[in-house]
Design a protein that fits this description.
This protein has helices spanning 8-21, 25-54, 62-71. The chain is an all-alpha fold and 76 residues long.
């Protein structure tokens, strides 16, 4: 059981969406929380990797990165 204060307008929109799509509100809220927690975990991991990489002098210039993207057909 989870109690949370949610703005009335948001609750109304959630209720309408769930009703019109045949989704249980508890299911949708649980999925949204799980997705957000996964996103936050990924962000935390990305920050840790970035901090670790900054400790090393193995950086390339923007021109070299652009060349790398161009070689692989990626538009930056």
């Amino acid at each position: 059981l989870l109690g949370a204060r949610v703005p009335v307008r948001l609750k109304e929109n959630l209720t309408k969406y769930c009703f019109s799509h045949g989704i249980k509100m508890n299911y949708l809220v649980a999925q949204a929380i799980q997705e957000k927690l996964l996103e936050l975990a990924e962000d935390t991991e990305d920050i840790a990797v970035s901090k670790d990489r900054l400790k090393h002098d193995e950086f390339i210039s923007q021109a070299e990165m652009d060349k790398y993207f161009k070689k692989r057909g990626i538009r930056a």
